[in-house]
Amino acid sequence: MFAVTILGNNSAVPAFDRHPTSQVITLDGNNYLVDCGEGTQIQLINYKIRRSKISHIFISHLHGDHYFGLIGLINSLSLLSHQQVLHVYGPAPLREIIELQLKVADTQICYPLHIHHISEAKTLIDTDKLTVKCFRTNHRIECYGFSFEQKKQPRSLLPEKAKEYEIPAVFYDRLTKGDDYTKKDGSVVKNEWVTEPAEPGKKYAFCADTKYDEALITHIEGFDMIYHEATYLDNLRERAELRFHSTTKQAAMIAKKAGVKKLLIGHFSSKYDTLEEFEAEAKEVFPETELALEGVAYTI
Amino acid sequence: MFAVTILGNNSAVPAFDRHPTSQVITLDGNNYLVDCGEGTQIQLINYKIRRSKISHIFISHLHGDHYFGLIGLINSLSLLSHQQVLHVYGPAPLREIIELQLKVADTQICYPLHIHHISEAKTLIDTDKLTVKCFRTNHRIECYGFSFEQKKQPRSLLPEKAKEYEIPAVFYDRLTKGDDYTKKDGSVVKNEWVTEPAEPGKKYAFCADTKYDEALITHIEGFDMIYHEATYLDNLRERAELRFHSTTKQAAMIAKKAGVKKLLIGHFSSKYDTLEEFEAEAKEVFPETELALEGVAYTI
Fold it and tell me: ipTM for the complex?
């Protein structure tokens, strides 16, 4: 299961029951939190996502609607006697802000908290399941997007076939890694006769806050799904430009040019009560667009 | 109208749909916010309390559940083009925390924001309507309660009576201030014949986080209503003592010894799913106790 659940899809100020930016990427039971606007811990409770399962938090930039909920979440985990390591990634001043707030409260966090500062495009995590990278976006202040690339999975064994060819069970693990099996008589059982290829690893990117910028494309080309902000409808292109944000059609154009399979749009301005027009406008340019709705888990 | 509306009645971490501490004191159309836990701005929206009408915010202490929502509210007011002066009172490091977060976001607040640090018991506001004072409470870190004392109001004119005595309307203002009226023939119309006394000014105090401490009493004696924390049921007195908090019966004993008219209890531990026992226990000691429930406005 590789999915993203939206916790907040609004920009700047909370409005119309929409919350500031946060989303959870779930892969094989691990939760990766991206951005943490005010109230994120309450949204996690609302949607029954276990706070204790969050191992990594990525903060795109230090505008409040993307991180004011972080200190509360860090603090609550400690009050709830969290044990596991928590890694937090974000622009450099994040550490100073968190440490200052812990100091004045005379609070010791009870679990290992590692705050990593990011300052350039690079690989942040690389395990046998997943690679997470960050990349710069084009915003008013230093801002990063994050890509989540699932590793190619092992081949699936076809047990009936393996038995038919009399391959001993101890060799099954090597079969899933792609090895052929050589029998005692020297004959070779080709790997593809007894296994089938796994699904290729899926790719998702959170493109953070950004103005329209084709420089993003190199980081998200051919991805299965991207989240791109669409703060405004397309008639407010000038305002979007001025504030380093994007419109519906600009988000859709990036998705189209990057050849991704699916686009989620969010970070809606509090100007807008309803969202139907966001979807309609973006679909004119890129039909595989969906609104990022709070509480919904989108399978990647 | 002098009332307090509860926005959050939980301690430490949000739970069971209860939010961290915040309450609004409303007097003659002005809103005074006391504490501002995470999500306070969303609670203000939920309960249709206009953020723009908040002129003063008082922060009792720098544990996160009492102020993590402050920076978000300050920021949102600016994004919403707030114009009026906003005064914030709190322990000294509050200014550094707010200024740091505004700096890293490259944000200029668009309205006059005055952050006042409090470091001892004193009068913070003194107008013709209201006196607000702060006083120390006995908590793990520096912590303040706040008292709100409505000024004695002018006497109420009895218009029919004033006409009967042929007092000219230009003198009515002086009647409400208590002056007698002398007619041209030298006869005196006694003030009490044509006015009636106003209600005496009401008094409310927010006693913040505190262990049981009778030193509080001097600041709240005879008040119409106080809010006193009751983090735990009374069987957890030792834990309360250890953590500088109070139990139901301790809160009720303070109310009783201070001779107040009504007690609100809140700051309930996230251990407790339901609150009935809090009310029952406190009432054993002080019958005029009510639970501080979110969204409810209690008239003082």
Answer: 0.87
